[in-house]
# Entry
Amino acid sequence: TMGDIASMDGSLVGLIADEDTITGFLLAGVGNVDIRKKTNFLAVDSKTTLKQIESAFKEFVAREDISIILISQNVANMIRSTIDKHNKAVPADLEIP
# Structure
């Protein structure tokens, strides 16, 4: 529920999108790199494999510090079956056009 999300300390937004979208969100202050050099975003370009996108999505779903995953629609369509298997409320996965 929204109350659960609001009460989480240090909740992050996970991002999986093209470089321009990622850049916009990073400029807005959404980016995070932890002490293990793990980021909360994946910039998808022509060299990014489906396996990399799927593993980033699964990693973000498993992380306790991420409460929302924003994924661009075109990237989401590439891993639709993986996204459809995700059925928990937190992290919520939202597609952006």
Notes: The first strand starts at residue 12 and ends at 18. The CA atoms of residues 42 and 52 lie 9 Å apart.
